[in-house]
Amino acid sequence: MQPNSVSKSELKSERRFFSDFVYGLTVPVRAVTVIFEHPKLIALSGLPILTTVVLLSFAIYALLAGFGSWAHTTFLNHSASLSLIASVIIGLVLVFFAINSLTFLSSLVASPFNDWLAECTEHSVQVPNVPPQNLARFIRVFFVDLRKTVLSLILSVLFTLGGLIPIVGIVFLLGISLLNTFTFVTYPQSRRMHGIRASWKWISQHFAMSLGFGIMTTLMFSIPVANLFALPISVVGGTLLYFRK
Fold it and tell me: What is the mean pLDDT of residues 16-38?
């Protein structure tokens, strides 16, 4: 009887782990639904994206314009076909690097909006007792977020380097996924003055959900151009994930 009860308990635990993992994977989809159900969230999500696209467009135009002038001067004494081929190849390389810088650029542009977006998400899904914002709380939250951001940057570099190691690199890649979850559940946690230790404790307590959500956000950020939309979806998703419990 005892072995049978243990096996049933283990089976229940495995099913719970799987259901929580799947829930974490699907939270970004739920986040998209919530965003489109509330016009204010659409505006807060779209404004950083629009700003990033405008800045990127000007950057690409400036790069190509400057490159065109340089190519014309450099290949002036060569054949027209060679000049054209070289210009197209190098131009495409420049555009590729510009597009793949979207994640970094969008993160910079959206950083002032992210906490506001997370707070509005709480109101939109009717989270009770949303902490009121004032100057003193804003300053305290800022320093909590600053410590978490520094830790995230350090761990991100270490995990990325570790991910290059054959075989064991998969462990570091999973670490990057959990780090993404840590980043996006930070907004509602920091507003409640939960520090680094409390954040990691929450992730360890809800490991399956955190892993599923982190894997999905990592995939979203790895797709060029689509990663532009991944940031607001992840901010809203991290808030939904946190308040599921």
Answer: 92
Query: Which residues contact residue 101 at a Cβ distance below 8 angstroms, ignoring those fewer than 6 apart?
Result: 56
Is 168 strand, coil or helix? coil
User: Which residue type does 72 have?
Assistant: H
φ/ψ of 127, rounded to 5, equals -70, 130
Angular region, 48: left φ>0, alpha ψ -120 to 50, beta rest: alpha
Q: Look at residue 207 and give its three-state secondary structure.
A: helix
Question: Alpha-carbon distance 182 to 118, whole Å?
Answer: 14
Give the C-alpha separation, 38 to 109, whole Å. Answer: 22
pTM of the model: 0.71
Provide the token pair at 234: 């992840």
Q: What is the pLDDT of residue 27?
A: 95
Q: For residue 96, report the phi and psi dihedrals to the nearest 5 degrees.
A: -60, -50
- Residue-wise pLDDT tens digits, 46-95: 877 777 777 667 766 666 666 656 655 655 555 555 555 655 666 555 55
Of 140, 124, 134, which Cα lies nearest the Cα of 189?
140
Please state the rounded mean pLDDT for residues 12-26. 88
